[in-house]
Amino acid sequence: MIDRSKHIYRHRAADYERLVAREDYQGNLFAALNDIRPLDGLDVVEFGAGTGRLTRMLSVQARRVQAFDIEPAMLAQARINMLETGMSNWSLALADNARMALAPGCADLVIEGWSFGHTVHWHKSDGLRQVDAMLAEMRRVLRPGGAAVLVETMGAGQRRPAAPSRELAKLYAYWREEHGFQYRWIRTDFHFASPEEADELIRFFFGDHDAAAWLSPDQVIVPECTGIWWRQYD
User: Fold this and answer.
1) Where are the domains of the chain?
2) For residue range 128-150, what is the model confidence (pLDDT) as tens digits?
3) Which of 14, 44, 133, 181 is the most exposed place for a label (fewest CB within 10 A)?
4) Which helix (H) or strand (E) holds 156?
5) The CATH number of 4-17+38-153+165-187+226-232 is which of 3.80.10.10, 3.40.50.150, 3.40.47.10, 1.10.287.90?
6) Has this prediction a pTM greater than 0.85?
7) What number of other Cβ atoms are within 10 A of residue 143's Cβ?
8) What distance in Å separates the CA atoms of residue 137 and residue 157, rounded to the nearest whole number?
9) For 180, left (φ over 0), alpha (ψ -120 to 50), or beta?
C-alpha cells in the first residue's frame, strides 16, 4: 500500500501547499537560516523542494536557487508559486536526492526541508545508508567552505521539540554523532484563517487522531517545532 505522505505528494500537491502556506507565520525559519549562514548572494541547491516553500524564501536573498524534487506534481505546484513571486533567479527540475545532474562544486549552500526524514520510514531496512548517499551528493555539489543545512520536523502539535518517531530520533542523533552536524530548534507554528480551515488541513495531512488531539473548537494556531542541522565543510 502506498505511504500516506507519498499519496499526498503525488496527488494532492495543491492541498499540501494550502497547509504549508499557513506554517511558520512568525517567520522564524528565515531568520534562523540567515543566522546560520547569511543567504545574500549565495548559489543554492535545494534537495526535495516540494511545492517551493524554501525556494521562495531562499530566492529573496540568494543569487540563484536550483531546486529539485522527485514528484512532478509537487514541482508543478512549485512552479505556480514561484512564478507568482516575480523572481527570476530560480529553476526547478526533477531529480532524486542522491543523484543531481549538477557539476561538482557549484553551490555555496545546499539545503533540504522535510525530505530526507521520509527516507528512514520509506526504506526501513537501509534508511541510514540511503541518507548517507544524499549527504554525499550534497557534499559533492558544495564548494570549499560551503554549508549543508537539513530542516526536519521536531513535532507538530507540540510546544517543545521531540522527534515524532524512533526512526527519526535515530536519524537526528546520527547526523550529530556520525556526521558532525550542529543543531538548533525553532517554533514554526501554523496560523490558520479559521477553526474550520485548521480542522480541514490538519486532518488532511496529519490524520483524524492528531486533529482530535491537537485542536479545540476555536483554535486557529497549532504549535509546531522544527529542527535545523547544519555543517560547514572545508
Assistant:
1) 4-17+38-153+165-187+226-232
2) 999 999 999 999 999 999 999 99
3) 14
4) strand 142-156
5) 3.40.50.150
6) yes
7) 14
8) 33
9) left
The position carrying cell 497547509 is 19
pLDDT of residue 189: 98
DSSP run (H or E) holding 166: helix 166-177
Q: What pLDDT is attached to residue 2?
A: 56
* Strand 182-187 relative to strand 90-94, pairing: unpaired
The arithmetic mean of pLDDT across residues 77-85, rounded, is 98
For residue 26, what is its C-alpha cell? Answer: 512568525
- The H or E element spanning position 137 is helix 127-141
Once rounded to an integer, what is the mean pLDDT over residues 35-46?
97
Residue 149's SS3 state is strand
Q: Which residue has the cell 557534499?
A: 139
Q: Give the confidence band of 154 by pLDDT, cuts at 50, 70, 90.
A: very high
Closest Cα partner for 215 from 166, 173, 161, 156? 156
- DSSP alpha helix (H) spans, 51-126: 53-59, 72-85, 119-122
